Amino acid sequence: MTAALHPWWPAFGQPVAPDAVAPDAARALIAHVASGLVPSVTLVAARQSNDGALAALHLDIEVERPQDLAAPIRGVEPVAVVFGTGGEQPAVLALRPDFPETMHQNWTPDDTPRALCIDDRPWAEARLAFTPADFIRRIQLWLAKAARGELHDTAQPLEPLFFRNPATIILPAAALTPADLPAELVGHLRNEHETIIVTEFVRPGGNSPDPQFVVVPLRAAPQGMQRLQHAPQTLDALARQLQGCGIDLGVELRARVIEWAGLDATAVRRLQARIALVIAFPVAGDDGRQADDLRAFITHDSAGDVGVALGVLARNDSNVGSGSGYVRMVGVAAGTAMPGLPISPADVHLGFDRAVGAMISGQAQPDRRQAQPDRRPLRPGRCRLAGIAAGGQPRARGPVRLDDDRS
C-alpha cells in the first residue's frame, strides 16, 4: 500500500527478511500466508526489535465491507502483528494513523497504534488452540464486523475500559462500598507470586507486617460502553483522563497523603509504601445492563514522595521523630498541577466471600445458615467407615465401600 503508516512502524526495530524473524509463531504465520491459502492477506514487510525478542509483521488485509459503513474501515487495512520469543500473546495493531476508535480495542500508550481485541479468551486458554489460520480469520472478522457495526454481540459481557495487565490486586468487595469514613486498606505481595497483591482492611490493634502498598479505592461517574482512549503511564496523564469521569485525582491524593502525614511509626510505614489506586468504572450497555470495570494503577514512588511532588508534604529534616517520616507543609499553598510521576497498571479481582459466591450462583442473597454437626451416637462396636474396626484400627480386607456399615 502507498498510504502513510503510523509513525510507530518505522520506529520499531530494524527491517529483516521474513525468513529471519525469530519467534516461532511469527514464522508459522509467514508460512501460512506464503502458502496461498489466504489470498486476501499480503505480507508486506517484517521488522524485528534490536534485541531480537519481538518481531512485527506488516500485513495488508482485504476487508469484507457493506456499502453503508458503520465505521470508516477501508477496503484494505494495514495491520502489524507483533510476536514475542517468550510465547506472549500476539498484538494486532492498526497501522493506519487515522484508524477509527471503535469498541473492542485494547488500550495502548499514546505513541502506539490502536490495538484490535480479536479474542476475548485469556491467552492461557487461547494459546492451546492457536493456529495461523484461526488467528488471521479473527483479524478479518474483527475488521468486517467493525465495518458493519456488529463488533458487540448482545450476548457478550460488557466491554472493559482497559485491557488485561500482568499485575493483579485482590480486593475485598466491601472496599468499594461508599462510606463517609472509608476503611483503611493496605496491600502485600504474595511470596510465591510477585505479581499478586493481596489487600486487607487495617484492624485497630492488629499485628500485621508493614504494608508494601496503601490502597485508595475511587469510583468514577457512570460511563457508556466506550473505552478510555490511551493507557496513562504517569499520574498527570491518569488525572486528565479521570477528570472526565468525575474524579479529581489531585484533590483525592492530597487529602490522603495529608491524612497519613506524621512522625510516628504508623505514619512512617504508610508513607514508605507505594500507592495503589483502585478505580471502579461503572459501565452501562445499551440494554440497561451495568457492571463495574475495576482497574488499578500503582505508583513507582512511595506515598511520601508523591506527597512531596504534590507540594503538601516535606521530608522530616528535624531531630524529632523518624528521619524516614514526612511532615505536612505549613503556609505553602498546594499547587494545582499533577506531577508526572510514573505509574503501572494492574488488574483487580474481588476476594471470594458469601456475597460473591451468591452472585456467581445466581442467588439473590447469600445463605448464612451454619452447618450443624451430626450428634447422633454411634452404636457400640460399629463404625460407618468401611474397613475400620471399633477400636480405630484398619482391617485388611477388600476394597473400601463408603456405604458399607460392617465393622
Count of DSSP H/I helices: 9
What integer value in Å does the Rg equal? 28 Å
* Largest sheet, strands/sense/barrel: 7 strands, mixed, barrel
Strand/helix succession: HEHEEEEEEHHEEEEHHHEEHEEEH
Strand order of the largest sheet: 8-10-9-11-12-13-16
| Strand residue percentage | 15-25%
Structural class: alpha+beta
In total, the number of strands is 16
Shape descriptor reads globular
Between the first and last Cα atoms, what is the distance in angstroms? 83 Å
Percent of residues in helices comes to: 10-25%
| Weakly predicted, low-confidence segments | 385-392, 400-407
Mean pLDDT rating: 81
Give the topology:
Elements: H1 8-11, E1 14-16, H2 24-34, E2 41-48, E3 54-62, E4 76-84, E5 91-94, E6 105-106, E7 115-116, H3 123-126, H4 132-148, E8 168-171, E9 185-190, E10 193-201, E11 213-219, H5 235-243, H6 249-260, H7 265-272, E12 274-284, E13 290-302, H8 303-310, E14 313-315, E15 326-328, E16 343-350, H9 354-360
Parallel strand pairs: 8-10, 8-16, 11-12
Antiparallel strand pairs: 1-2, 2-3, 3-4, 4-5, 6-7, 9-10, 9-11, 12-13, 13-16, 14-15
Helix pairs in contact: 6-8
